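INTERNAL TRANSFER SHEET
From: sequence group
To: structure group
Subject: 2TM domain-containing protein

Please process the attached sequence and return the structure record in the designated field. Keep the field labels unchanged so the import script can parse them.
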Amino acid sequence: MEKLPITKIDSKYERARKRVEDIKGFYYNLVTYCLVIPLLTFINYKTSWGFQWFWFPLGGWGIGLGLHAYQVFVHDGFLGRRWEERKLQEFMDQEENDQRWR
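Return from structure group:
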């Protein structure tokens, strides 16, 4: 089995830790949404059901929650980590090739 340098292990650990924090943040957001929106709906129902204002936080927060889910689970963000890693590797390969020809 190949041994990785300490810096690579640390880097992998930090990336994994960041990923776990992102997922945890999304789930906190989701649970809070599921608790607060029914509460706001109930408050709206009990106070002034003629104007149903609970739709505004439901829709706005729901859009934000959807974008958060997209960022965490589907896309790595515009110019995100994967792009960064590819660019770093590209520059390191380019520098290595340049040094070979000198």
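Handover comment: The mean pLDDT is 86. Helices lie at 6-48, 55-74, 81-100.
Transfer complete.
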